[in-house]
Amino acid sequence: MANTYTLIASSVLTVATSSVTFSSxxxxxxxxxxxxxxGKEDYYNPSFDQYVRAWISVNTNVVSGISGTxxxxxxxxxxxxxxxxTQWWEKGIFTESNSNGxxxxxxxxxxxxxxxxxxxxxxxxxxxxxxxxxxxxxxxVGAYSGLYSNTVAISDVRLLGTYGNWPVGSSFYLYxxxxx
Length: 180
Prior knowledge:
With 180 residues, the chain is an all-beta fold. The protein is 0% helix and 48% strand. The protein has one domain (5-124, 146-177): Jelly Rolls (Sandwich). The chain starts with a strand and ends with a strand.
């Protein structure tokens, strides 16, 4: 990593949980970077035909005016669309799929430039989900670019699971970047 990255906070789960919050984010950096390595949620419903996602929220979920564009793919199909949300960014941020594989791992990186500034806030998210088996049937990638149409500085960042808990060992890191 560049010398300008400073670890603000980290969390490696010792107990399964469905969310991780980094609160009291210092306003002394230019940008924020959230990195996560997440195991499969403990939720499974064979009739559930949607991908299970992680959600990223800011400022204690009390936000509005979130919009963005996402693209996701699995090696054989691709999907893209625009969306408007009221509380979080989620599209293209995978933590499992509708299969019950035990070897599913997800990596997420979210970048929030000028988070402490007085303008609207941007976010870009890249994620990859991999099933470490021969079939690889749940391998997915996603990209998301969004806008938080609010001028309030971001003071907390939260990553939430969709339905169940993330397993012990899942890791989350929040970095500040100085423009120097």
